Amino acid sequence: MSSAAPSPAPTARASRSDAVFHWAFRVLALAPVVLIVSLGVELYHASLASRHAFGWGFLTGSAWDPVFDHFGAWPFIFGTLVTTAVALVLAVPFGVGTAVFLAEVAPLWLRRPIGYLVELSVAIPSVVYGLWGIFVVVPWLQQTVEPWLGQAFAWLPLFQGAPYGLGFLAAGLVLSMMVTPFVVSLAREAISSVPRSQAEAAYALGSTRWEVVSRVVLPGARSGIWGGVLLAVGRALGETMAVTMLIGNRPAVSSSLFAPGYTLASVIANEFTEATTRVYTSALIEIGLILFGITLLVNLVARIFLYRMNRPLGGTA
Amino acid sequence: MSRRHALRRKLTGRLMLGLCALCAGVVLAPLLLLLYYVVRQGAAGLNWAFFTQLPAPPGASGGGMANAIVGTLELLGIAFVLGVPLGLAGGIYVSELANERLVLAVRFAADVLNGIPTIVTGIFVYTLVVVRMHRFSALAGGLALAIVMLPVVLRASDEVLRLVPHSYREAALALGATRWRVVRDIILRAAKGGLVGAALLGVARVAGETAPLLLTALGSSQWGVKLDQPVASLTMQIYAYAIAPYDDWHRQAWAGALTLIAIIVLTSALARAWVGRRA
User: Fold this and answer.
1) Nearest residue on chain A to B158, alpha-carbon basis
2) What is the pTM of this model?
3) Residue A231: its chain B contacts at CB < 8 A?
4) Residues of B in Cβ contact (< 8 Å) with A102
5) A64 sits in which H/E element
6) pLDDT digits over B111-148, tens only?
7) Is A89 among the domain residues?
8) Yes or no: is domain B66-277 CATH 1.10.10.60?
9) Which residues of chain A are within 8 Å of residue B204 when distances are taken between CB atoms?
């Protein structure tokens, strides 16, 4: 600092530039808030034509007919819920199990490379998961897994019909791969935030390692694990490319996981630039609005859980 | 009875922890398989033409993704210019100019924004820019990526800045420096490396984005870097080639995937190195 030593009392000019600086940064920093609000407002306005034409019935209607401009979002909502459910049913148990393994069981030299791999899997683009899904997972499902499931669980409505390969199962499976790392890394963080003294106290009382994990560590990490699960739900709901490439893209509601379907995100990706009429585009934007609303809600709740985890332990422990 | 009880507890423990190890195996195996496929198929698909030529017409073999590689770099450049300053400003504000409530609100909003599906961001930029300009453009694509990048850079720079020892700020303030001087002359200098890392982290996060680009940059099979024209990207090209019925396009899709992952891994490694250097 080569300028003259600042006088003890700030000069008027210095304090004014300080105020300008402060306000400028405050305005810039509010960008995320402004963006979330304007996203909602913009989507709401741009979906006007569709909201007028179909009203609340849009949510439950299952027609998707670009020729006669008649649109309903139910097949997409259904597909989004089914793929998310398949993904979570797999991701939560395996993810939490992996987190316990990493935090409590794995030898120290193994923890770092595995942790790095899990991080890497978040960085792999969705479109690459989709590519791999098309050429590796789908043929495997079609030739091996689906015929077997169809025979072994013939009585279950979930596994009926011809093995297409492309469908809810393929999309859900690859989706589970994509969201598991969120469960793993947040569960791991939550587990390591449980005070070691509590685990040691349980050991001192004669607990086995598993008893410590299941009765002390996991309950203590509950809030963080729930946060991770909800973040994974949010990701699964909005995941676009991999699902678009694997789900078969047919707006149909089916009880079988083998059947092709469609999701909110994938219909937007697939049809948006080809929408020919104003109502068509507007209906796709309303689908975006639905997706925005659901994921906003899920993320709000997830973040509340996670902020609670990071707060120092209160009376609830 | 107590001995049997103890044995059962021990066996249950072994079994459950063994299952946890199994879980880790099940989670990691497909991931390793995916990486194996991308490297094997991708390396087999790479050749000189891939990096230097335009896409071949549908069905014809040969050609490459040169325009898509350039397009990806252009889009990342635009996103960097638009997104990084805003993200850094937010990070600086949140970590340095504390007003407890507002800080919490901005952090919270950034985290929530980070969870909004990027395709929704794509629609937003479509209605905001594409509709008004009456055309898809590189600018719109870059803007969409900038919005996706913003919360990542904000939170990362926030964390980096919080690593600067508190005593630095107190010392400067005690000498009579204004807040602005403290940030400019002390904090930014101390955290320079980390901030570069935060910016690179943002780039790595959006380099693999496809969905928002489909609605904004559209894609293209031509050369071109004009800001107001549609532009290609590696991700969109991989998508188009993967779902097309031609073997040679599939080969190039794998090559594109390998190239893309290489760009992302390199950028994140660089980001990590800068953050680690701190100072």
Assistant:
1) A29
2) 0.93
3) 115
4) 24
5) strand A64-65
6) 999 999 999 999 999 999 999 999 999 999 999 999 99
7) yes
8) no
9) 123
